[in-house]
Amino acid sequence: MDFTLNEEQKAIRETCRDFAEQEIKPIAEALDATGQFPYELIRKMGELGLLGLPFPEEYGGAGADFLAYCIAIEEISRGDVAVGITMEAHTSLGATPFNLFGSEEQKRRYLEPLARGEQLWAFGLTEPEAGSDSGGTQTHATLQDGYWHIDGTKSFITNSATEMTGGVTITAVTGKRADGRKEITNIIVPKGTPGYGIGTAYKKMAWKASDTRPLSFEDCVVPVGNILGQRGDGFKQFMQILDAGRVAIAALSVGLAQACLDEALKYAKERYQFGQPISQFQAVQFKLADMDTEIELARLMYYKAAWLHMQGKPYTREASMAKLFASETAKRAADQAVQIHGGYGFMDEFPVSRYWRSVKINEIGEGTSEVQRMVIAKLLGC
Ligand SMILES: Cc1cc2nc3c(=O)[nH]c(=O)nc-3n(C[C@H](O)[C@H](O)[C@H](O)COP(=O)(O)OP(=O)(O)OC[C@H]3O[C@@H](n4cnc5c(N)ncnc54)[C@H](O)[C@@H]3O)c2cc1C
């Protein structure tokens, strides 16, 4: 097995690491305090090609491979997870469906500005009554005279209302299958379409600078051609989107876990108690060693899942395992990072207190830890 990154993957990692260190980390605390969406930063990331990494160059993307994209998410999230999730939701949830399932015309019209970083896009799956049970979609669309009439509500939709947002792709029930189950179709709804209502931004525990809102659709009308791929393929499509998204969320968790270790190690070397740096105490060393070990393992898990995806092999199991383990690793890392900081870890001027608040959502978004365990158990044959 060869775990060596190729030149392009290394170059993308270095670019993102430098960008996170120089441009993101210095403003991360302010972003958390104000909750302002970081337009300047996101636009710069677009100019650097970071918002279109895994898409073909002919559609405005950087033509990088999926692992390189995940490594980029890790490094950006090491700087700040609110920025990391903005990039991840835009790329994995917003733009990837166009790349995978869009017609040539849709790729030109929607994917190109997204890949060039001129626009952001959202994906609306979750509803007030359909979270983990994502097939429980109640939003429905009926076809009348060549137009889809959409009615329903979506919850917690990332990137859905920034100034840069071009629109949202939503899941909607478009009929009934022969077996009686719901026919779900993905429908493209550009921002500004009459009847597409954008709710007030949620007040969140963390990821405060990312844009998360409820959306409503009241007789929202889009042309018949605004469906993605084939009518009725919505469920199949979002399962595919979520598999890849989970690998990227694993990378985001590894980035946050690494940030926890970075801060804990720095602090442990600087903080003196009993006449020596606390890093000299074996109890503290063991915490740092455990963090480093688990982070490396979580990183290898998302590398493997990404590699399987790139080989065109099945990777649902590995994607769920990587997401599950990396998010729980990040939680333990954040906890130990605060512990190593003692009372100062409880204070907002130290980043670890923000990391501790930020880490919880990784076990919830793009499928909870329970859902990941359900996926893994099902593949075990349970
Ligand atoms: C900040 C943020 C951003 C988000 N961004 C997006 C987005 O861009 N697009 C989008 O579509 N969604 C988004 N989501 C939604 C997210 O994917 C859901 O919150 C998540 O899937 C869980 O759904 P739920 O919140 O309805 O929880 P529920 O499904 O109600 O789950 C509640 C609890 O019950 C457990 N549970 C549920 N079913 C089972 C079961 N069968 N067995 C065992 N336990 C179970 C869950 O694991 C959880 O612990 C976002 C959420 C947040 C908080």
Written description of the protein model:
By secondary structure, the chain is of the alpha+beta class. α1 (7-34) packs parallel to α3 (66-79). It is globular, with a radius of gyration of 21 Å. The relative contact order is 0.11. It has a four-stranded antiparallel β-sheet with strand order 2-3-7-6, with helices on one face. Strands 1-4-5 form a three-stranded mixed β-sheet. A two-stranded antiparallel ribbon has the order 8-9. The protein is built from ten helices and nine strands. The structure holds flavin-adenine dinucleotide (FAD). Residues 89, 93, 122-126, 131-132, 156-158, 204, 207, 212, 361, 364-368, 370-371 line the site of flavin-adenine dinucleotide.
Query: So how many helices?
Result: 10
Largest sheet: 4 strands, antiparallel
What's the overall average pLDDT, rounded? Answer: 97
Strand count: 9
Ranges where pLDDT stays below 50 over 5 or more residues in a row are: none
Cross-sheet strand order for the largest sheet: 2-3-7-6
Question: What global shape is seen?
Answer: globular
Q: Give the SSE order as H and E letters.
A: HHHHHEEEEEEEHEEHHHH
State the secondary-structure class.
alpha+beta
